[in-house]
Amino acid sequence: MSPWILASGALVPALAIAAAIGWRGRIGQRLAAYQLAGSITVILLTLLTFATDQPSLTDLALTLVLLTLPGTLLLAVFVERWL
């Protein structure tokens, strides 16, 4: 097993915890968990790029980086306005 696969596997529990908090936490915790899950996912995709030697996953990670912050801001506006 390559070290890239082991590092990717080590991030999966952290992503699961962020998803659980995003599912069941209070509103402020959900926003923070959403941002944390996006960051962990970007790192996970980058590690999988090195593990599988697929450069196309880097494009997906960069796209996720560019969309995570506006998505969080839109979610915050929705929460403030409607909930």
From TrEMBL:
GO molecular-function term, one example from the UniProt record: monoatomic ion transmembrane transporter activity
Main location: membrane
Keywords on record: Cell membrane, Membrane, Transmembrane, Transmembrane helix
Membrane spanning stretches: 6-24, 31-51, 57-79
The keyword Glycoprotein belongs to this UniProt entry's keyword annotation: no
InterPro entries: MrpF/PhaF-like
The keyword Cell inner membrane is assigned to this record: no
Subcellular locations according to the entry: Cell membrane
GO terms under cellular component: plasma membrane
Topology with respect to the bilayer: Multi-pass membrane protein
Protein name: Multicomponent Na+:H+ antiporter subunit F
